[in-house]
Automatic annotation (TrEMBL):
SUPFAM superfamilies: Sigma2 domain of RNA polymerase sigma factors (SSF88946), Sigma3 and sigma4 domains of RNA polymerase sigma factors (SSF88659). Belongs to the sigma-70 factor family. ECF subfamily. This is RNA polymerase, sigma-24 subunit, RpoE. Keywords: DNA-binding, Sigma factor, Transcription, Transcription regulation.
Amino acid sequence: MDNGASSYRRFLEGDKNALIDIIEDYREGLVLFLNSIMGDFCLAEEIAEETFLKLYVDKPKFAEKCSFKTWIYTIGKNAAIDHIRKMSKYGEMTADNFYDIADRQNIEQNYIRDEDKKQLLRALEKLNDDYRQVLYLIYFENFSNTETAKIMGKSEKQIRNLLYRSKESLRNILEKEGFRYEGI
């Protein structure tokens, strides 16, 4: 996987396959990030599709002031916010949660690890949106505090504070449920 910027440049120069490379490289992580905003996996997939469609149709300029991944996640976050605003005009959104996705690996070998992940995901769902998003971006997507601040529209200090509070909150939730993990 390249950094995405070169694929996007190839796409802008007329190579339609370059967009397929971008989708393959960023789709899964973008959907999971958008799910942390939307609380609905199917809706997050739709917003991710809208994000890639925006790249295809509008061909926005990538100014390279941040990483390509940060840029595309910001486009996705803005699409999610636009969707939430649009839906709020029509009344309350209904959200069906589709968090249990089948693991493609051997279920028997990964049962315990999968159960721990499920417990962690359930605990993450109990966090407020900002806490869930900051943890996801930093620990699941490996964004830096600076990149996370840009995506979430906050300062780096706010991100450090959010990160500290979200880890404390997550630890408290997990401890109440009897889960022990030394890395949190």
